[in-house]
Each structure stands twice: as C-alpha cells, then as structure tokens.
Prior knowledge:
Organism: Achromobacter veterisilvae
Protein name: Carboxymuconolactone decarboxylase-like domain-containing protein
Shape: globular
GO molecular function: peroxiredoxin activity
Domain Carboxymuconolactone decarboxylase-like: 250-327
Pfam families: CMD
Radius of gyration: 20 Å
Strand order of the largest sheet: 1-2
Amino acid sequence: MAEPIVYNVTDDLVDRLIALAPGSKTYEARHQREKVAAATQGSYDALFDPALPGLSLAERLLVALYAARITPSPVLAAHYRARLTDAGATPADIAVAESGKPADASSPRLAAILEYTRKLIEKPVEGDEAALKTLPAAGVSTPAVVTLSQLIAFLSYQVRLVAGLEAMKALETQPAAAGTPPAPFPANTASTAPGAVIKAHGFTNESLEWKAWLDVVNVDTATPEQVAVLEESHPKAKVSDYYLFLVHQPEILRQRSTAFNAIMYAPGGLSRAERELGATVVSRVNGCVYCASVHAQRFEQLAKRNDVIAQVFEDPATAGTTARELAIGKFSIQITEAPAAVNADSIQALKDVGLNEGEVLDLLHSDAIFAWANRLMLNLGEPVFPAA
C-alpha cells in the first residue's frame, strides 16, 4: 500500500505559483476550504510521483507542459518546463511539447500520448472510443491509460483553478466597487414542471448508466488498497464502471474523490444547488451528456425546480431565472471555454449579483472540478440511455 500523502500548507504549489500569502482575501478564502487545497496538492503529488509505474515522469511532465501551453496557462507552463529540465528530458521532446506538434515526437508512443492530450484539452467531446484505443495500440497499458487520463483531467482542473485564483487576487488590488446594482434582468421565460423529463440537443435529465471502454477492476480480485479507496469514494463505487476503472490507480482516485466530495458537499458557502448549477453548465458546454444528466437531477432535488435546467440544456449562455443564476452561468461558461480570459472583471460580475469571496471560490471549485470530471466521463466510456 502506498504511503499516505501528507499536506504541507507552507509548500502548496498553487499558493507558491501565484504568490498567495496569509492575510490576503484570496488566500484566506482558499484555505477555508482546506480539504480542497490539500486534495489538489495531493493529486499533484500522486500524479507526479517518480515511482508511479506505466508512464515515465518525463512523459507525464511533457503532457503537463503541452496541456499548459495549449490551454494556455503561462504560469503553469513555466513550472512544468522547469520541472522537465530538472528531470533531464531531452531538448527535442521539450521542443515538441512547446510547439504543439505531436507528430514531431521522438516516438510513436509519445506522439499518441500528446495527440490524446490535445483532444482532451482542446475539445474533450472528441476524445471518443477510437481516440482512447490509440493508446493501447501505442503500447500504453490500461493502468497507464488511467494515469494519463487522470493527469490530463487534473491539469484541466488545475489551470482553471489557477486562472480563477489569479483573477480573485487581481481584484483585491482594485478600488472597491461602488456597489451599482446589476442591469435589469431580462427574464428567461422558458420553464418546465418539477419532475418533468427534459430533452434538448442530446441532453436529458433522465437517469443514465455509464460503461467503460477498457477493462475495469474485478472487486473480487482487487487489492486491499483498491477496495479501501472504492469504499471511501462513493456508496455505489463497487458496482460502478467509472470507479472500477479509475481504481486501477487507487491513490490518484483517492485524492480526486476527496477533492470532489469536499467541493460539492461541504457545508456553508455557495448553496449546493448553485454548485450543481455550475456543474451542469460546464457539462453542457463540454458536451458531457452523462454528467449533465446527473447534476441536473441533483439541482432539482435541492432546488425543487428544474426551470433553469431546461434553459441550460437549450442555451447555457442565456440560462437563468435570476440575475444571480445568469451570472453563475456566464462565469461557468467563461472558465470552461477561455480560462485565460478570466480576470478581475469576471469576479466582480459575480460579486455584483451578491456572491461573497467564499461563494466565488466555491463556484470556481465546482466549475474546475467538472473540467476534470467531464473529461473522464467523456474519454473513458459512454452513457447508456434507458430502454425505449
């Protein structure tokens, strides 16, 4: 069993990269959600553990540099570039990751890994079964496929978390807003009755199943660590293809599940219904039918209505029954589609409709974790619809 990862708050990578220090509003808000900060760092540590088999550390760092370059996230690209140099990666391979041209890679294996990375970073819905199966064909084992998929999904989360925190920090240095109320809200009148089935543009709030495209772990032959992580992750993890596939790499799943649960279920802060709304918007934008269905249902269970879900499925850019919901949707779209464009004004727009510092952070976390979740669901398997 792997040694437990211990969180050292004084050596938190995200804090260091964007110079967050105790006493600042952004630092204090972030560390009110210490479990999320710890699991974010724990995920980084697990994914870049030199002893992790299947993919070399250099391969993982090349993926990280490539992902940070094409997203883009200059601060993370600089970090991973420095780590690659320290790890002794060849200048030629670093140049390929910098240039964004997988076909120029030094081996067919690295070319396949980087091409898969490109699809998941740029347009995750294109990472279909055929894209996934290029990896085993290039000599990447199933556990290593899990590592790679988790890595790319984590990087998608990490770049959005960093972008949002940078924007929150930037707002701290600006003069306080005058408190002007938002412009009159143009009511979206589209509505549906609670409990009604919603279907639009391939999305639905019906209950779906999900099946993996590669071999899952058999619970009867799983290691004690795998069983323990399944039991920690979700009440139905032992019968879920999703968890049974990801548990090929138990420590990575443990950290990811800890982050997810702390983000979506922690008390206080942004309402759980609004976190689910952000998750649904991100899933709609990314094209993840399965995630959208699950979190549309959770929104309705919490809010006792589904009117805004019908609007999200129809057009997320105009969805919202209130100015606050509309602002949550617009931020969720921006952080999903263009994280590098998120700035102090993006955060101020949320504050203008009443979100406080902690609520902004909770929304950022919810949106970022679905950059992670959507990529796993889209790229490792497919939804199964109810029988007609």
